[in-house]
Amino acid sequence: MRRILIDRARHRLRARHGGGQERVPLDGIDLASPQDDERLLEVHEALDRLAVEDSLKAEVVKLRFFRRLERCRNGRVLGVSQRTVERHWAYAKAWLFQAIRQRA
Fold first, then answer.
1. Which alpha helices (DSSP H) does the chain contain, by range?
2. Model-wide pTM > 0.85
């Protein structure tokens, strides 16, 4: 799922596909803004950096954010306790927030 979202975001940001231009929907319904794609790419890059530092914490984020697994299922998939998943999730959120903020 992560790969699909990242490829879609990259595709939408390419200049030949209208790269920073905003589409105006004909029916007046507001769709996702181009900034959402940029933010997704920022998260993707920061997540790759986190994976280099600590792959288990990055895996917790991937399972929770991209696969939408519940905390208890994340622990079973990773072979760790639910409390460990909660600690890794809290650390990873703070780490990603800091990494994205420093790049901006």
1. 2-13, 34-53, 55-61, 71-78, 82-103
2. no
